[in-house]
């Protein structure tokens, strides 16, 4: 850079934090603006498999790979695939030295990245309302608290419903036709040992037609279960979202005929049932270059949940930071970054969309359809 740009990253997720870390490692100041009031205000979500060609590349670039390995769970790479009768269709058990895609809780990863930044990098309780590209090539951010600030570079790392994206495109996410309903189990080994044995050390996926049950181990004997199905956005119409008994009854009706061992995940859970409809950005999702503004991660390429979202976000963040480091101007950096990121995101979005269509077909067939697993 010929001069030090004023850089704001909107959103303190993995992609934005990786970008900030690498910029700071090269002496480039950066501010991360986060709408949450504090780091501990909410759970950061479930477990992530950090993959060699994407997320691990980013963590190596950030100088954090060894610290990540110390926190990760290689045993969490185990995958059990079953039909609705709980018959094992495929089973992958990682070798002891396998670090192709070890698991880590989202919260642990975020803490690792946060702790690597200079104190005060993240400004909490800074919710961006609007993003405006100005005629001189700078970008104005307006905050929910009424304040404004101008930057030379604004990076939208603020997820599916990005407040930065409208400065580049008016495209909005659309419902994919698939909904996940999330439930949790704590201390599963002690409280529900039969379920713990069924799930194993990693991920269990049971599928039949448009229905799936997916259970993932997190750290500390915590399990997140996703009741996933293809159906209307208003599948829970007429039900109180806080009425766990009514939601459970409707879901059990949808999964009638499934093995009782699998249905125990619904029967034993005391709630809540958290509705998570899956939204995606259209494919391809691109935009014309606007000075001083760009996107990364879900803000740029919201895809179905196929294990690539956080990994691509971190790779985006690492590549964007390196582009800023390597080029004389912000615009040269953004042109170089977007040329690579947009082409990759279009390819990945097509692939994950095709995978979702295979895994969650619009059919009542009970035959399970699975992608291949490493080790097949």
From TrEMBL:
It is found in: Cytoplasm. FAD binds at residues 49, 106, 298. An FAD-requiring monooxygenase active on some tetracycline antibiotic derivatives, which leads to their inactivation. Hydroxylates carbon 11a of tetracycline and some analogs. GO terms for cellular component: cytoplasm. Its cofactor is FAD. HAMAP family: TetX_monooxygenase (MF_00845). Keywords: Cytoplasm, FAD, Flavoprotein, Monooxygenase, NADP, Nucleotide-binding, Oxidoreductase. This is Flavin-dependent monooxygenase. Residues 7-340 form the FAD-binding domain. The keyword NADP applies. Belongs to the aromatic-ring hydroxylase family. TetX subfamily. It is an enzyme of class 1 (oxidoreductase). It catalyses: a tetracycline + NADPH + O2 + H(+) = an 11a-hydroxytetracycline + NADP(+) + H2O. NADPH binds at residue 42. InterPro entries: FAD-bd, FAD/NAD-bd_sf, TetX_monooxygenase. Its EC number is 1.14.13.-. Consists of an N-terminal FAD-binding domain with a Rossman fold and a C-terminal substrate-binding domain. GO terms for biological process: response to antibiotic. Gene3D superfamilies: FAD/NAD(P)-binding domain (3.50.50.60). GO terms for molecular function: FAD binding; monooxygenase activity. The keyword Aminoacyl-tRNA synthetase does not apply. Monomer.
